[in-house]
Amino acid sequence: MHIQSIPMSVVHEGVGSSNNYAYLVHDDETKDAVIIDPANPPEVIPVLNDKQSSLNLTAIMNTHHHWDHAGGNTKILAALPKPVPVIAGKDSEGVTKTPSHGSKFNIGKNIQVTALHTPCHTQDSICWFFEDQSSDERVVFTGDTLFHGGCGKFFEGNGEEMEKALNQVLAALPDDTKVFPGHEYTKSNVKFLKKVAGDNKAVQALEKFADENQETQGKFTIKQEKEHNVFMQTKSEEMKKVTGETEPSKVMAKLRELKNAG
Ligand SMILES: [Zn+2]
């Protein structure tokens, strides 16, 4: 499995961010490929054109419907030599297929994809778990649900839903699964982690890495997120103490409130 990150600046009428990622993923053997969250066509189309003779694009995929993830679908489709399905949650622009939670499909010969529904940031959020059977490699594209050292805002959900998304669904993935989030937020997430878990050695290691590297996507695994990401530690005594709550979903909600407050 080969993953090419495409950093994007998705700004519309002065609103947006300059730290989004699209991901072009292909099966090494068949060259079948998908593009995930290609929100800014002017930055994505040149990459797709460049790869047109070497890769076979089979789908556009989205992690959720927000315009800085799914807002480029129609323009990307119009620029392709042949139509491809849009595989995404129900509210994405131009969506043609929404796999149910736990359902699987293949990309080329070796990549098996599992849809993991993780409603909370949006109700249509889906994390995509990719396993390459030939290289024994596992990755998960988490959109705005899980970031390195953080999680997305609860725009359409609550603490109970994010607790389930992070600490049941994503936490159940194999330890060595590499995490590819939808934004480069690691540095700002570290600031919050230091406030609530400053003594944690894994947080200090994450800070060092983020200070030394502009791009951190795919550099940490599910196992490491459990070690440095307080949103994956809602059952710990430390986070109960920090939040004054005992129920994991309430610990989660309180942590998000604290982070929102800055
Ligand atoms: Zn979003």
Explain how this protein is built.
With about 260 residues, the protein is an alpha/beta fold. It has a single domain (about 1-185), classed as 4-Layer Sandwich (Metallo-beta-lactamase, Chain A), CATH 3.60.15. It has helices at about 40-50, 65-70, 75-80, 160-170, 185-195, 200-210, 220-230, 235-245, 250-260; strands at about 1-10, 15-25, 30-35, 55-60, 85, 105, 110-115, 125-130, 135-145, 145, 150, 180. β1 (about 1-10) and β2 form a beta hairpin. α4 (about 160-170) packs across α9, α5 packs antiparallel against α6 and α8 crosses α9. The N and C termini lie far apart (about 40 Å). The mean pLDDT is about 95. This is hydroxyacylglutathione hydrolase. One of its GO terms (molecular function) is metal ion binding. Pathway: Secondary metabolite metabolism; methylglyoxal degradation; (R)-lactate from methylglyoxal: step 2/2.
Could you say how many structural domains there are in total? 1
Mean pLDDT: 96
In which order are the strands of the major sheet placed?
A: 1-2-3-4-5
| CATH homologous superfamily heading | Ribonuclease Z/Hydroxyacylglutathione hydrolase-like
Order of helices and strands: EEEHEHHEEEEEEEHEHHHHH
* Top CATH class: Alpha Beta
